[in-house]
Amino acid sequence: MPASLATTFTNRILQGAAASLLVLALAGCSTTKDRMTTGSVPKLTKPVEEMDATELRSATDRLGQAYEKNPRDPITGVSYANLLRMNGRDTQALAVMQQVAIANPGDRTVLAAYGKAQAAAGQFQQALDTIGRAQTPDRPDWRLISAEGAILDQMGRASDARQRYRDALDIQPNEPSILSNLGMSYVLTGDLRTAETYLRSAASQPTADSRVRQNLALVVGLQGRFPEAEQIARRELSPQQADANVAYLRGMLSQQNSWQKLAAKDKTPGAAESSNTN
Fold it and tell me: What's the Cα-to-Cα distance from 116 to each of 90, 97, 255, rounded to whole Å?
């Protein structure tokens, strides 16, 4: 199954939604994707998001060999850690990024990736500190601000998280990844109607990618409108990817025990207001 589909849906049971939110928020924090074919980093045969599990493991092994030859290289280290996380090897990714950060203490891209690895490993406060060191006060990076929001959401600090998303939108208005993260923040506190509003706005932006639309499909499906959710999930995907997406969507929505509290909370008057007290 393509890695992006697993990232989009497998982590979306109630607690896991925060993890997938973080993936999207931090995706823009480094230029690793653009640099994957440069320097000494092994060339990849296709975008990481389109790889199946076997291809992803193969790419990880090749990058691992390149990392062993030059563990101080920031491009190789960040790329390798990203792939390790996509394989579910968060502890190993954190260890790699720790060494790369020691070797490159002033590299903002490295610090951002290190913060991502820390958050994926559950070290939320450390991740916030690291992301903060990567930020430049006189030239704030909206990607890092949005990343802070995602980490705060995982810490249960919804109000603080949403303020950071709005701070990021002040710098980068209508940025779909920020709007999507803001929408998913409301999913985490059970306000599905507000979540859908932000996700529809995100999906309507010209630069929105498929991850944004899959978030929207999930929220629409959670409200019981599965045919509409399936239609959204199938857009701009190959038939094979679309079938996999829909299968995962059905699987997530069938886990009623995981989502019943969200649905009940969404129907309760004042749910949105009470969810913002964190």
Answer: 10, 9, 28
